[in-house]
Amino acid sequence: MPAVSKGDGMRGLAVFISDIRNCKSKEAEIKRINKELANIRSKFKGDKALDGYSKKKYVCKLLFIFLLGHDIDFGHMEAVNLLSSNKYTEKQIGYLFISVLVNSNSELIRLINNAIKNDLSSRNPTFMCLALHCIANVGSREMAEAFAGEIPRILVAGDTMDSVKQSAALCLLRLYKTSPDLVLMGEWTSRVVHLLNDQHMGVVTAAISLITCLSQKNPDEFKTCVSLAVSRLSRIVSSASTDLQDYTYYFVPAPWLSCKLLRLLQCYPPPEDGAVKGRLVECLETILNKAQEPPKSKKVQHSNAKNAILFEAISLIIHYDSEPNLLVRACNQLGQFLQHRETNLRYLALESMCTLASSEFSHEAVKTHIETVINALKTERDVSVRQRAADLLYAMCDRSNAKQIVAEMLSYLETADYSIREEMVLKVAILAEKYAVDYSWYVDTILNLIRIAGDYVSEEVWYRVIQIVINRDDVQGYAAKTVFEALQAPACHENMVKVGGYILGEFGNLIAGDPRSSPLVQFNLLHSKFHLCSVPTRALLLSAYIKFINLFPETKSTIQEVLRSDSQIRNSDVELQQRAVEYLKLSSIASTDVLATVLEEMPPFPERESSILAKLKKKKGPGAVSVNELEEGKREGGELNGGGERGDNSAIAASNAVRDTNKYEKHCFEIFISALQLKSWGSGFATPGCPCMFVCLTHTHTLLSLALRFVCKNNGVLFENQLLQIGIKSEYRQNLGRMYLFYGNKTSVQFITFTTTLNVQSKPVEPLIEGGAQVQQVINIECLTDFSDAPLLNIKFRYGGALQNLTLKLPVTINKFFQPTEMASHDFFQRWKQLSLPQQEAQKIFKANHAMDTEVLKAKLLGLGMALLENVDPNPENFVCAGVIQTKAQQVGSLLRLEPNAQAQMYRLTVRSSKDTVSKRLCELLAEQF
Amino acid sequence: VLSLTVQPRCKIIRFILIQNRAGKTRLAKWYMQFDDDEKQKLIEEVHAVVTVRDAKHTNFVEFRNFKIIYRRYAGLYFCICVDVTDNNLAYLEAIHNFVEVLNEYFHNVCELDLVFNFYKVYTVVDEMFLAGEIRETSQTKVLKQLLMLQSLE
């Protein structure tokens, strides 16, 4: 039996390791390490040439020190020297050091590649393997450039040893992953596929990983692998448990190879050739049969290996989704596992059944296990198993069992782990909507959801219930009655108050006939919650109150009283104050007709995909919700929503849905504003000294820094104070831009002699802005050459008697004239190298001002106008972008690289452009953004 | 959130870790590029995730967008990080197969063997796993090869 003693071969190393282990403190360890480093350094620098053994020993010690977590900044050269040794042990330590401590020192890479080249052509299989393992471990582009042509030759050559073939296949796989453009299989394809027939099972095991990866990218070129894989699988499956000798693991023949073969087949549709297909179905049946046979060993290794194959076979059956008989048998097998004493098997069965549930052939069979799954949700000890049970319940839900499943999920929610509550809430909300036959059940379910897990009910969920209630008049009365009852609870979740406020504001009249829910009772109930709520909810309640005034004239005086109170009309929050003031004014001035028009019931929302489903998809990532489910969702959802057209792009649909609900609010305001402009109202509102305006008047503002907020976006509010709001919308194409400025008078008093001057030319703006009105100004922009300073905009007007003077920087920055440029990794780095003059680069290292959220960063970089390049930077955390700035005088190509360091909360930003001023300016602009 | 994706469809082992209960790393084998800080962070996270689980729990645990397949042997945790759609049981047994090879090679392996012979452990790993894939599964073949290498000078 092979056995090794402690550190045999290198006594000095063993002593050093022992010393380190005996250190009583971190300080002692560092001291010992420093002593050793000094010793090694002096040996390496000494006049006496070191022999191979000593060099190996010291390099190995350095490696050990590195693995302890210390930096190593020397010894690389000695390690490279070891590569050219003729002794295996020396070479091995050299390669190991390189593999673990690789850095991109190009000088060293050239030397390493030289040594690898020598070993690859040495015809010594041990050395060839060492070299191949080094390439596979490092996998750098330089290595791909040097060896991607040579390795396929080694892989298919007739005289290559089996172990070398194994290493060559996986080495090539690694290079293909890092540099697919350099690995050209072309002429080798057929010979590589035929490795599936190789006599040596180890060669097949390694080669099949390569083939699987390649056939995912080029399925047609590799499709002959299907029949070869089937016949190989068939030979393994039908072999007796001892036939494969070395490759039998606990009485299971070649379990890993079988799994890999079944996985390769999942890259393709079912075989077209009847004979091949027949043989494969036979294999799958045999695998299912074996699961029923008594185990050949009681060891868990035996059953795990056997079941590994079984689960892979079931994955293939589900992938084909065309053999009803196999699908149902798979389902029955998984059903047995659901009650198995092994937690692993119960977990995997729940997971696998989840995909079976989406097949029309096995959906019914899956449903028969509902009781077991519900039980798992209630009793499993491991939260990840409960999570799978919840997933499966969601997947098996249909019209027939929706009520039961939703009820079980709701009751589980009361005690569910915090980690999975939000997802559970989304799922309940989706199921309730999707399978609602009667909408009172739907409303009950969502309100229960808010009651039980209010904190986890996201905006999408309560927006959605409102959308549905608005769109379905048969449920409005019930919804009003139910929210009214729910609001009676002494402690109500704020989300309940939101839904309650909205629904009573729209449909409170439907239950007002009952004296127990008369208008005043409704109002008092809502208002009793008001003071405990956050600002957005209070704002919503104020809107509900003005709606009440329209619905129930008898509440007018009570509500006006509330609006008039100091806590509303002088609220320190601008939004609340504005609403209180405006609603109060509206209610006292407008005629009943005008009120009825302005505060009319909300129109139905346009039909589109559920915002909740979109959210769940986003949460789970693309692909988590199967196509089936989406299509089903469409079908069923269409029915629910009266079959309107649905948005295809879920993300857009989601944001629209959110916006639409906000529209309740916006809607009110927009109509309000236009109502204010009605002639008959004009004089009343233009009276100076209106009681609600008590703003302090500032005389001159110089606000130059605000423009920086618009580096990564084109629209928004440029400036706002108590009097004036300036909105901005801009669009850019090539070197041209157009900017719309919207000047909104927030007061009820006219602004007169309103002028704006730009230090460049602009069209004049309307000199008068009515109270509450808005005027627009258009500015056309042409970028002649690159620039650093933005144009200044000076605004002057009279408000009351006082002259207002304001200077703003227009948010025009050089990046607005970017044209995004897509390019591949190779091109990017080539271009990057070309821009290597010191003045072409600008770099800044700065602290993060905002949370370092990848999605936010991406959005900002996209807003910048450059193309955000994926899979270019070897470090997936970094971002690289490319674009060309269009000016009339010239085009300026620019590249950008942003390296976040989450630990230090710092960024390093590097910009390279063909023009130095551009690099510098871009760097300055961007450093303020993150 | 750190992303561990290389290319969407080619699934490989992301890393193999052997840690003791105190969180000391006895082997770390990375199959994709991470910088040193990130490696340290992953090591700590895996330790935190795995050590809190009890014997009745599954040998699989979700980890970021991936999953860790792990098994405990005495005071050592052997962990493999793979894609969520990978075959759990196949990797679980791949761990055991690897442990049996180590056991045979070091003649009743213990934690100290892995410490003193860390450079040989890498050789064992490379024989059985390469480029994030399973390279060789036959214990006989692997041990024969290791014995042959052992005899070389």
From TrEMBL, chain A:
Location(s) in or outside the cell: Cell membrane; Membrane, Coated pit
Topology in the lipid bilayer: Peripheral membrane protein
Keywords, sorted A to Z: Cell membrane, Coated pit, Endocytosis, Membrane, Protein transport, Transport
Major localization class: membrane
Entry GO CC: AP-2 adaptor complex
Gene3D superfamilies listed in its UniProt record: 2.60.40.1230, Leucine-rich Repeat Variant, TATA-Binding Protein
GO molecular function: clathrin adaptor activity
Domain Clathrin adaptor alpha/beta/gamma-adaptin appendage Ig-like subdomain as annotated: residue spans: 708-811
Recorded superkingdom: Eukaryota
InterPro entries according to UniProt: Adaptor_Complx_Large_Subunit, AP2_complex_asu, ARM-like, ARM-type_fold, Clathrin/coatomer_adapt-like_N, Clathrin_a-adaptin_app_sub_C, Clathrin_a/b/g-adaptin_app_Ig, Clathrin_app_Ig-like_sf
Region forming the signal peptide: none
Function as written in the Swiss-Prot or TrEMBL entry: Component of the adaptor protein complex 2 (AP-2). Adaptor protein complexes function in protein transport via transport vesicles in different membrane traffic pathways. Adaptor protein complexes are vesicle coat components and appear to be involved in cargo selection and vesicle formation. AP-2 is involved in clathrin-dependent endocytosis in which cargo proteins are incorporated into vesicles surrounded by clathrin (clathrin-coated vesicles, CCVs) which are destined for fusion with the early endosome.
PANTHER family reported in the protein's UniProt record: ADAPTIN, ALPHA/GAMMA/EPSILON (PTHR22780)
Family: Belongs to the adaptor complexes large subunit family.
Record-given protein name: AP-2 complex subunit alpha
Native organism: Cyprinus carpio
From TrEMBL, chain B:
GO molecular function: clathrin adaptor activity
PROSITE patterns for this protein: CLAT_ADAPTOR_S
Subunit description: Adaptor protein complex 2 (AP-2) is a heterotetramer composed of two large adaptins (alpha-type subunit AP2A1 or AP2A2 and beta-type subunit AP2B1), a medium adaptin (mu-type subunit AP2M1) and a small adaptin (sigma-type subunit AP2S1). Interacts with CCDC32; the interaction is direct and mediates association of CCDC32 with adaptor protein complex 2 (AP-2).
Subcellular location: Cell membrane; Membrane, Coated pit
Predominant subcellular localization, coarse grouping: membrane
Domain AP complex mu/sigma subunit, residue spans: 13-152
Protein name (record): AP complex subunit sigma
Pfam families, sorted: Clat_adaptor_s
Protein family according to the UniProt entry: Belongs to the adaptor complexes small subunit family.
Coiled-coil blocks: none
GO biological process: clathrin-dependent endocytosis; intracellular protein transport
Keywords: Cell membrane, Coated pit, Endocytosis, Membrane, Protein transport, Transport
Gene that this polypeptide is encoded by: ap2s1
